[in-house]
Amino acid sequence: MASLSRLKPGEKGRIQVTVDAAGKRGPIVKTVQVYSNDPKLPVVSLQVSMQVRDSVHLKKGASAGIFDEACRSCHVDQGRGKTGFELFRADCFMCHNAGTSAQNITQMSKRPESFLRRVIRDGVANSTMPGFSQANGGPLTEAEIDSLVKSIRNP
Amino acid sequence: MRLIAFTLLLLLLITMPAYAQPVIEFVEMKHAFGAVSQETKPEHFFEFVNRGDQELIIQKVSAS
């Protein structure tokens, strides 16, 4: 809301915009219309934007802990006993969707098998992609990684 | 003759804003909060100034 509704020539004012992020998720854009007696610009649109994250996912690059107790119910347990595309849907899809932070399955399908196997096994340094192999503390066996590589190559 | 008329019109257009009018001018019209948590209520102040030479009246502020 405006701090002053009548301003003399040269006087400054401000419009306060508050957004309640509770219960929201993802990209949010809010616009506010300011109506004044300026004949040239009777309505001014102000815009605020934000990415609302729940507190669990607020820290970027926090994927190091995704195999830990707090995260495993979503990031590990749903893929248990699954292979191939079913496993992809359970463990990979949450990031490798059409999003911007990770490549989608169409983009990945063009990569060589050896590359895919290495990335799934060991992850990518300085990124949010962790190593999923059991040697790296992840949940996947070599056979499961192999099934993932095959279903990514033939989506 | 045409040139004179054109010049007068141009002069009129240039000087028009100088006639008594309020002029609202915002420093910025967009603001990006970046990543925020669900527990917060991000708040921002949009600053503006009356650049005209008549009183500026904010009649209504509505959110959508």
Q: What is the topological layout?
A:
The complex is a heterodimer of chains A (155) and B (64).
Chain A lengths: L5 E2 L4 E7 L7 E11 L6 E11 L15 H7 L8 H9 L12 H4 L4 H10 L19 H12 L2
Chain B lengths: L1 H14 L8 E3 L3 E8 L5 E8 L5 E8 L1
Antiparallel strand pairs in B: 1-3
If you had to describe this structure to a student in words, what would you say it looks like?
The complex is a heterodimer of chains A (155) and B (64). Chain A has five helices and four strands. In chain A, helix 2 (84-92) crosses helix 5 (142-153) and helix 4 (113-122) packs across helix 5. Chain A has 155 residues and is α+β, with helices and mostly antiparallel strands. Chain A folds into two domains: 1-52, no CATH class; 59-153, Cytochrome c-like domain (Cytochrome Bc1 Complex, Chain D, domain 2, Orthogonal Bundle). In chain A, a hairpin with a 6-residue loop joins strand 3 and strand 4 (43-53). Chain B is elongated. The mean pLDDT of chain B is 85. Chain B has one helix at 2-15, and strands at residues 24-26, 30-37, 43-50, 56-63. Chain B has a domain at 21-64. At the A-B interface, strand 1, strand 2, strand 3 and strand 4 of A face strand 2, strand 3 and strand 4 of B.
SSE order of chain B:
HEEEE
Outline type of chain B? elongated
Secondary-structure class of chain A: alpha+beta
Provide the helix percentage of chain A. Answer: 25-40%
Coarse structural class of chain B = alpha+beta
Query: Mean of residue pLDDT of chain A?
Result: 88
Largest sheet of chain A: 2 strands, antiparallel
What is the rounded distance between the termini of chain B?
A: 52 Å
Q: How many distinct helices of chain B?
A: 1
